[in-house]
Amino acid sequence: MNDLFNSVMILALYYGVWGFICILFVAVLQRGFFYNYFKVRTSFGKLVMVKIRSPLRDYFVRGEVIEGFLVYKIRRGFRDYDTIRLNIPQNGMVFYKSMSVAWCDVDDEKHAICQTDYTVVSGYDAIKNNNLHTRALMKPTIASGQEKLLMFLVIVAILVGLVACYLAYMSYANASALKIELPGMLKNLAGTVTGGKTI
């Protein structure tokens, strides 16, 4: 019984270490997104995810809305944080929902909140645009004058070849008929020349 308990504990420790390594690997790959998302998700609406758009890369921090301001901290160095306070516009849409948490986009160069105004996409019909695109891809191409001339010459050559084949067949048929009638004609001709006597 003691050996079974030890083997179960070793197996559980083995899986726990592998799970921790996988979570750590994902956290390193996502550059802090996993930890911040976990904190915002477990805050139940008290915190928001802030996506900071910089010229080189986007990074994520957690922020909080305090008295009409978006407050978040950014790291400037090791254990060196700056607290940023940005005014939230009253008439603008700045928050949106994604992955079951509230998000806000911030421009790092201008130190301003990006508005999420989705009215610019109204009137866009994806099905009509796709149909027009398909029709443009499938439309027949207009042949140039040189291509038309080449096609005309090919058709004329095919017709001349067919006429030549027909004439060759007709001449062969006439020659075959002549070949069949020629011995009889020569026999009659020879009989006529000798005065009706066959040789």
Explain briefly what this protein structure is.
By secondary structure, this protein is α+β, with helices and mostly antiparallel strands.
Description:
Strand 6 and strand 7 form a beta hairpin. The model has no long low-confidence stretch (mean pLDDT 80). The chain has helices at residues 2-29, 33-42, 126-138, 145-193; strands spanning 47-53, 58-66, 69-77, 80-87, 95-98, 101-107, 112-113. The chain folds into 3 domains: 1-30; 36-139, no CATH class; 148-173. Strands 1, 2, 3, 4, 5, 6 and 7 form a 7-stranded mixed beta sheet that branches. It is elongated. The longest helix is centred in the C-terminal third of the chain and has 49 residues, at 145-193. With 199 residues, the protein is α+β, with helices and mostly antiparallel strands. The protein has 4 helices and 7 strands.
Properties at a glance:
alpha+beta, 4 helices, single chain, about 200 residues, about 25% strand, elongated, seven-stranded mixed sheet, 3 domains
Strand content: 15-25%
How would you spell out the order of helices and strands?
Answer: HHEEEEEEEHH
Summarize the biggest pleated sheet.
7 strands, mixed
The dominant shape is elongated
- Arithmetic mean of pLDDT: 80
Could you estimate the helical fraction of the residues in percent? 40-55%
Topology:
Layout: H1 2-29, H2 33-42, E1 47-53, E2 58-66, E3 69-77, E4 80-87, E5 95-98, E6 101-107, E7 112-113, H3 126-138, H4 145-193
Parallel strand pairs: 1-6
Antiparallel strand pairs: 1-2, 2-3, 3-4, 5-6, 6-7
